[in-house]
Amino acid sequence: MLRSIPALAALCGLLLSASACSQQEVAKATFMPMGGIPFTIQAYDVSSATFDKAVTAIQAETERLESIFSFHRDDSELATLNREGQAKVSQELLRVIQVALMVSNSTDGAFDPTVGPLVGLWQHCADLGRVPTEEELESHKALVGFRQLLVNTAESKITLQKKNMTLDLGGVAKGFIADRAAETLKGLGVKRGIIDAGGNLALFNAVGEEPFRIGVRHPEKPNERFAVLTIDSGAVVTSGCYERFYDVDGKRYCHILDPRTGLPVGELLSATIVASEGAYADALATAVMVLGKDKGMQVINSLPDAKALLIWREGSELKYSISASLESKLELSAP
Ligand code: AMP
Ligand code: MG
User: Fold this and answer.
1) Ligand 1 centroid, distance to 245 Cα (angstroms)
2) Which runs of consecutive H residues, i.e. helices, occur in 188-255?
3) Element holding 127 (H helix, E strand)
């Protein structure tokens, strides 16, 4: 069974009082799209008429994007591509696949959008109350490989070169959806706002107000904060194994899989990425969970627009590492 625990990363209004963040009034709404992921919209200094309009527009757009990216819905654009093996796709699907491949290339396949067969296998086995066998892992691993995913940008055409390959964009699409919601707010004239799409934050602040204080959840204590990051705008995305996992006989297996072994990852407790684009930050957060603390930070340091806060356990100690340029923005919470 795949289980979900909400509130992966908490934000200003959720963990801190809104007044600690801004002198402006904040309007807030939450809905539960994408199979029950909490999606929160916060807009500062906005009329209730504009806010209502924004919420309606964001809900409609999120539903439309879900009908493109969903792995589970038979009628989604992604499901059609997975069935046909080849399709001319929407600009949204094209962009998300392009970002996914960019991150696959820069992480040497730690992030791999073609991980679908392995995700399906783990889901299937967990439903049967067991873990996959060696043979099952080998046969499904053979179907995974981002280099077999071809993109023809000029014609918006995607080809899955191997039979039975499937794309799963669960590790990258939420960041894209969060950015799209922030664009909707901006389009309606909102100058300062926060979107939280299940731990994928999109922030914007065009009024010279104080930066946002973003609470990063303690990866082992759901109601506690590990730290606060002070961020002005862009994407802040956290991936963690505590959020969603396969439950087999009471044992938890992380929902993030290492495409090279087919096994759930386990070294990091959480990875928070700060970048300007949501889909990019989302994919990187998943990738770093696979790469682990050393290789993960090394890859982040080699990329121009990405910073990270990584948390892991060593014996009785909780440890963390942070990109040098993010250090001055970190405030650890009391243990
Ligand atoms: P996230 O919560 O953003 O870290 O994404 C996790 C989801 O991405 C999983 O539920 C799978 O659908 C998918 N996924 C799991 N492992 C990988 C991987 N190594 N590369 C890309 N997507 C993955
Ligand atoms: Mg992700």
Assistant:
1) 11
2) none
3) helix 116-128
Q: Name, in order, each residue with C-beta under 8 angstroms of 269's C-beta and a sequence gap of 6 or more.
A: 219, 220, 240, 241, 242, 311, 312, 313, 318
- Helices 134-141 and 116-128: crossing angle in degrees, nearest 10, is 160
Asked whether the beta carbons of 142 and 259 are under 8 A apart, the reply is: no
In sequence order, the β-bridge partners of residue 193 are: 43, 204
pLDDT tens digits, 48-60: 999 999 999 999 9
What residues are neighbours of ligand 2 (ion), with CB under 5 Å?
Answer: 171, 282, 285-286
Report the C-alpha gap between 105 and 35 in whole angstroms. 30
In this structure, the residues whose C-beta lies within 6 A of any atom of ligand 1 are 111-113, 115, 119, 168, 170-171, 239, 255-257, 259, 282, 285-286, 290
What SS3 state is found at 118?
Answer: helix
Sequential DSSP letters for 76-103: SHHHHHHHHSEEE--HHHHHHHHHHHHH
Beta bridge partners of 311: 270, 320
The model's pLDDT over 90-122, given as tens digits with 9 standing for 90+, comes to 999 999 999 999 999 999 999 999 999 999 999
Cα–ligand 1 centroid distance for 258 (angstroms): 9
Cα separation, 292 vs 239, whole angstroms: 12
Contacts for 272 with CB less than 8 Å, ≥ 6 apart: 9, 216, 229, 236, 237, 238, 285, 308, 309, 310
- Which ligand 1 atom lies nearest to the CA of residue 113? 21
Determine the atom of ligand 1 nearest the C-alpha atom of 112.
20
DSSP class of residue 50 equals H
Measured CA to CA, the distance from residue 99 to residue 176 in angstroms comes to 10
Answer whether 0.70 is exceeded by the pTM. yes
